[in-house]
Design a protein that fits this description.
By secondary structure, the chain is α+β, with helices and mostly antiparallel strands. It has 2 helices and 5 strands. 21% of the residues are buried.
Amino acid sequence: MRRLTATLLAALLGCVLMAGCGEDGDTASVTTEPTSEPTSEPTSEPGQPMTDEQQQAVSDLAQRLDVEEDAIEVVSVEDVTWPDGALGCPEPGKMYTQAVVEGRRIVLAHDGTEYAYHAGGDRAPFHCADPKPAAD
């Protein structure tokens, strides 16, 4: 019994030590940059009615540009698996959950300029000025 207890204690100590250290012996840290690119799959077909998310994005962009909603074109809508809580639009210095998030990328256009909107989890679509590219 004493030998089994010592073996279990040694195994537990080894697990604790390995979990608390990075490759170079430093303690683990949280990164603010995505560790991988999102994966995506197109979901929109021409002529389909807009979803609530698409309508929210169109309304937001029309308000930002001070134009009528019918002046905004839905270019594409993709289901996306974002690599973390930044939803493909990380802000410098901000920390995000490090778990994949199912969501969407909506690309809108007005007067020849395209605008990216990202959504995921419980977050409504938001304008992303500097979107991260999708994985090939």
